[in-house]
Amino acid sequence: MKINSIHPDPSQADKLPYSPSVYIQGGGDLLFISGSTAIPLYHSHPHVHEEHILPDDIREQTRRAMDDIKLSLDACNIDWNNVVKVTKYLTDMREADAMHEVMGEYFGDWKPASTMVCINNLSSPGARVEIDMIAMVPHNKD
To answer: Which of 20, 1, 6, 21 is nearest to 82 (CA)?
Structure first.
C-alpha cells in the first residue's frame, strides 16, 4: 500500500500545512477516529465537571487531543503517516497557526488532506479545538 500526497503545483507544497489531496494505492482498511478534544478520551457520562477543566492554551489543548488520537493509531499498529484526512474544528480561527504548529510536531513532514471549520462551541465547556481523522490500515497490519 502506498499513501501519496498530491499537489497540483509541487513547487508550492511548502506553503500549506496540509495536502490538497491524498492518493491511496493498494489494499487497506479505513479507520475513522472520532473527534477528540482536550478532555480525557475515557471520561464519565453524564459528564463530571472535574474531567472538563481544560487548559486555556490552544497548544496544550491540541497536544491533548493529538495524544488521545494517537491511542487509536497505536491500537491499530499504525502511525501518523497513515492518516489521510483530518478535520479540525476551532472556536477561534486566529489560533489556527498555533494549532498547526503543534500538529506538525506529530505529523513531521507528512501532511494529510485537511478541512478546518470555525464554530461557536464544542462538546466540552472550554474546549477550543476538536480534531477527527481518517487513517488507512494496511491489510498486512491485521
So the answer is: 1
